[in-house]
Amino acid sequence: MTHIESNSPVSLVYCGNSGVFDGLMISLLSICRHTSRPLHVHVLTMDLTRVSDRFTPLDAARADFLRQMLQSRNADSRLMLYDLSDEFWSVMCGSPNMNTSYTPYTLLRLFCDLLPLPDRVLYLDTDTVAAGDIGPLFDWDMQGCDYAAVRDYLGGKFIGPSYVNAGVLLFDLPRIRKSGLLEKARRFCAEKRTSFPDQDAINRLGKDKCMLPRSFNEQYKMQPDTVIRHFSKTIRWFPVFHTLNIKPWNIDELHRVYGTYEFDDVLAEYSELKKRFELVGASQRGDGQ
Question: Does the pTM of the predicted model rise above 0.90?
Fold first, then answer.
């Protein structure tokens, strides 16, 4: 059951460091192609260079470029950048999950309840690409639950049928603040190391959830009804067992391995915009002079 489609903004949350710029651009471009509604985008970042030189925050120049990109498509769209360096470190400085196969930036989604965000927000991983209008997902009737999510493709098989993927999460923040779900999840990740830190925390602690159709977070391969294709790490059984971790910006591999060409229009636009950003940056630095 869904709410009636409206022209109100779709509120999105992404998390990451400077390295998510490409994924953010592709994800937002794809969403813009399928909805006429304004996007209010909230990007959570932090400076974590005390842990790794790679962990630099998404900077203002990249955020400004993405903001202009959005507003060129809808003047009512917005992009807000939040630096959670202090808040994160105060909670997670001793966490055993600071050095796993997932960057600490995945944990930032657990801080949404501390920010002045809209009551309803849709969290997306930066390796998600829209193949349809996300409006019906954002408007989904959550039936009074804290959050809504899609069953994890692998976890649903090997962990349990109600184990969800944390790459697409629809949050009811007033309910979450009341239940303390994200606060409990932060504490869990600060103290316990697990295979999928924040995803495990949400699954263990977040029992008050609404299950969404697979079409809103397709983690395996494109289907006729796919709305969001999530290019998460997955496995293939044939011809021999192996893992795959191909991202949308790995365009050649996307074609060769997955045989995915559905997003070529978005990827062509992304490639041109990235060149433009790099040229502007080179000009401002005085490169080549």
Answer: yes
